[in-house]
Structure formats: structure tokens, C-alpha cells
Specification:
mainly alpha; 149 residues; Arc Repressor Mutant, subunit A; 3-stranded antiparallel β-sheet; 6 helices; 11% strand
Length: 149
Amino acid sequence: MNIELGHELTRTVITTAETFLREGQRLFRPHGITASQFNVLSALANVGDSISQRELGDLLVVDRSNVTGLVDRMEKAGWVRRVDDPADRRVHRLELTPSGRRLWQKISPAYEAVVRQVVSGLTEKDARATLATLRHLQGGATAWRLPTD
């Protein structure tokens, strides 16, 4: 691939991500949460029972230290709680509180409507190809090495 096309592709991915972040703030701010907090609520709502902080970090592809601070704030707000893992006392599992579940149920329909709007006009084939491309780019970004002097 020529470098100009590569530049355009990476610029477009970055500006698209920035647009999603900005518009996500507009969607979530009136509910008093961030996009990251909504992602945690969604992950916990969809996992069913509970999940460890490590599993949550892996699922959301975020650093474990970021998960800790995020969960601390959400626990203080009363949306999630840490419970001891009966099989391993070193592990805390996370679960939604009733308040967190109600918040997720309140916001989720608006989020789903936005997702439907954003992907309207894409075929399933287009969506799968885009996902494959984005995963390739994510892998490349994760593995990149700066040129040495």
C-alpha cells in the first residue's frame, strides 16, 4: 500500500474515534456518566453474574490500573460493587447494583438507537470487512516499534 493511502486511513480512523468520543460524551453526559462507565455497565449487564476486574480489563482492552480507578468511581456512585471471589481471596469480582442496572436500562435504548443510526446503510458483509480491517490496524498499532536511531 502506498504511504499516502496509509496516512489517509490512519487519519480517518483517528478522527472517527475522536468523533465517537465527542458524540458519546453528548449522549452520556446528561445521565451523569462517561462512555467508559457505560462500557462497564454494559459489560456487567451482558455477563450475567459477575466478572473479575482482570476479565473486565481484558474485555474492554484497558489497562488494569485504569480499571481500578474507573471501578472505584463507579462503586462510590453506587452502580457497581466488588465481591470476594469464593475460589480466590485475592480476586474481587464485580457486579451491577440494582441502581447500576436501572441506569444501564435507562441509557441502553438510546445507545442502541445511535448504533443503529451509525451503521445504517452498511451490509453485514461491509460491517464484517470493516471489523477485520480495524482489528488488523489495532494489532498493527499495538505491535508497532519506533525506528531506532
